[in-house]
Amino acid sequence: MTGNITYLGYGLAAIGPGIGVGLIFAAYINGVARQPEARGMLQTIAFTGMALTEALAILGLVFAFVF
């Protein structure tokens, strides 16, 4: 069996941010459905959380190529 195990590690590392983004936007939709007037504030928080969560996936990709 040949190959590099780091690519498997990146695949596993991408699962966490994928679940995280789903949970962030599920909470965003739930919050907007309960209080539509808070949409602007919740949208900013949701996109900030998504950016931080996706940074973890990018970090995993970098580590996969570095090591």
TrEMBL record:
MF terms (GO), sorted A to Z: hydrolase activity; lipid binding; proton-transporting ATP synthase activity, rotational mechanism
Q: How does it sit in the membrane?
A: Multi-pass membrane protein
Signal sequence residues: none
Record InterPro entries: ATP_synth_csu_bac/chlpt (IPR005953), ATP_synth_F0_csu (IPR000454), ATP_synth_F0_csu_sf (IPR038662), ATPase_proteolipid_c-like_dom (IPR002379), F/V-ATP_Csub_sf (IPR035921)
Xref: SUPFAM superfamilies: F1F0 ATP synthase subunit C (SSF81333)
Localization recorded for this chain is: Cell membrane
Mention any one GO cellular component term assigned to this protein in its UniProt record: plasma membrane
Principal location class: membrane
Q: Where is this site: Reversibly protonated during proton transport?
A: E54
Q: Where are the transmembrane segments?
A: 7-29, 41-66
| Entry superkingdom | Bacteria
Q: Where is the V-ATPase proteolipid subunit C-like domain?
A: 8-66
The UniProt keyword set, sorted, is: ATP synthesis, Cell membrane, CF(0), Hydrogen ion transport, Hydrolase, Ion transport, Lipid-binding, Membrane, Transmembrane, Transmembrane helix, Transport
**Which protein family is it in?**
Belongs to the ATPase C chain family.
- What is the role of this chain? Key component of the F(0) channel; it plays a direct role in translocation across the membrane. A homomeric c-ring of between 10-14 subunits forms the central stalk rotor element with the F(1) delta and epsilon subunits.
User: What PANTHER family would the database entry show?
Assistant: ATP SYNTHASE LIPID-BINDING PROTEIN, MITOCHONDRIAL, ATPASE PROTEIN 9
Q: What is this protein called?
A: ATP synthase subunit c
Taxonomic classification:
Bacteria, Bacillati, Actinomycetota, Actinomycetes, Micrococcales
